[in-house]
Amino acid sequence: MTRVVLLGSSPGPDTAPTGLRLAALPGNPTVGERLRGQILSLDPQPATIEPHDVAAALRALADVAESATDNLLILPANSVIHDELIYQITKAKRGALALVAKEPRPDNGEDAQEDSAADTVPIDEAEPEIGDRTLEGLPVRARAGKSRIVSVGTATIAVTRPNTVLLGPLHIKVQHMPVLAETCRELADLAGSFGPDDDLAQLVAFGLVRKGVSVGIRGRRDLFFRRVSTQEEANEAGAEMAGMNEDRARLDNAVKGADGFFTTYFVSTYSRFIARWAARRGLTPNQVTLISILLGVAAAACFATGQRPWMVAGGVLIYFAFVFDCVDGQVARYARKFGVLGAWLDATFDRFKEYVVFAGLAVGWVVSGNGDDIWILALAALGLQSVRHLLDFSFGISNRRKPPAQLPTLALDAPDDRKLRKDLEQRKIERSQGIRGLLKMWTKAGRYRAVHWARKMVVFPIGERFAAIAITAALFDARVTFITLVAWGTVAAAYTLTGRLMRSLA
């Protein structure tokens, strides 16, 4: 269960802004009623903290952090937010995550020329400043990079070239609770130095970043979030939210974003719609997994005949076995039905389908009168793939045990972030040398689309393996299939093993 902290007044029909009505939404709920209903499944008794007395609010948040035994979600009480956005924030893998909006850059006119002139000064030479611009009513006092917050300022503490506002929601995992509690108490002692426009969520992020916690960033993308203070703002928020397709965003989120080339372009383009259809009719992920298993066994049976029409049929069946292998995970993410049994079944029977197809191909080759030497290739393909799975599993376990790299820290009362940025630059230089430098260069090369997909394909993921089996078995024969699997699998094993050795030594 996630512990929830609401920043603001308790809900009530006569309390602004939580008592504002969202007339455009079903049931005409108040802001507070709707938010309470949304977080009920996370925390039936959320803590409410009044942010007007900053010192008291920070100490109250420290008390919550000290008693928390699970992750913590901080939300402004006047938030109008999609359910799916709450879900995505709380399920993020980052140890700490903030919902942000980056300041748009001018793209024409006089403002663009001024902005361009300002950017002629490199970021590492720019002077820290007190952010006086606002975005959505919040001060622009944070600097964000591509994936995390680099620095945060306040009304009295300068930050180098701020470009981001923290919208309010913060998700902090349980391992950071001791740091959060300590940080909030130290911030409370400095409360007199903060300004009236310093937002409480911004101050928490400010403290965490200076304590060396990596605070990731997430934008709203195709989902909605806004803080409302007047009925007019509530009306606008409700109307805008009602006009957005939350279900489509949820469906898109059900598809993993890091899939291989074949899965991305030949399966996920339509499998999500099968997943939604299945979920709406009550099919569970485990039932979809069973369909995938049956299709895999049927494909193996077709291959075992050794006859060309049945080989083609087997290629089609193994393709759809993989489609439904993707659909079961998408159903789980779309319907939010997760379980240990389902995860075990999915991982185990992926291997089962693959290996039973190997057997079917070998049997088909033998019954066609081609000799039984095919079993050597079949065993080579099976053994190679088994070793790869073992290495994947062992590396994943050891990598999870590896402590995260420590970020530089800075005293909370330091007047600007120059020292922090200098330390970050030094860290960047150190991490750009030796093996780390080579890994970083290879990572940067992934910005090019061709390199990105080449790296995805060279590791021979399950989508590419099933595609290779389907195409070579349907068009050629089992020998070609096994030679393809062994050759490509060997290249993939060498590539992944080299990369993992380098990462282990870096």
UniProtKB/TrEMBL annotation:
Query: Which Gene Ontology cellular-component terms appear in the entry?
Result: membrane
InterPro entries the record matches: CDP-OH_P_trans, CDP-OH_PTrfase_TM_dom, CDP_ALCOHOL_P_TRANSF_CS
Q: Which Pfam families match?
A: CDP-OH_P_transf
TM region(s), chain numbering? 288-306, 312-331, 457-476, 482-502
Q: Which UniProt keywords apply?
A: Membrane, Transferase, Transmembrane, Transmembrane helix
Which superkingdom?
Answer: Bacteria
Acidic residues bias located where?
109-129
| Secretion signal span | none
Query: Which family does the similarity line name?
Result: Belongs to the CDP-alcohol phosphatidyltransferase class-I family.
Q: What is this protein called?
A: CDP-alcohol phosphatidyltransferase family protein
Q: Which organism does this sequence originate in?
A: Nonomuraea endophytica
